[in-house]
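Entry 12.
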Amino acid sequence: MDWPDQNLAVWLQAQYDQIEAAAREAGADDVPRWRLHDGRIIGADHRYDSVIVDRSPEPTSCQRLHIALHDPSAVLADLAAKRAVIDIVTEDETAEGHHRAGRVIRALATALEHH
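Predicted 3D structure (tokens):
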């Protein structure tokens, strides 16, 4: 059964696919969580036997914390949760279920309006 926001759900999943690919490319599978330590963003990168450390004086401590909180592993966990929500709300094939799913999907899509 088709429902009005089905195309939006497809678009949203495609956006999530792009974000997931970028997170994996950034090393989500191989790199431990990024973290803030003594005002620096640190994450070991085993592919290059190195440690990523932000020594730049430009970002503020709040900006550094924001970056550390959005490491690739956190992004993948967030995407998995959002996809689970989409799966749950789209299971109900009734008209009321489609209405509810549309509301949830439109709410999730607002976070990606800039894409």
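Annotation: The chain has one domain: 6-112. The two ends are 28 Å apart (CA to CA).
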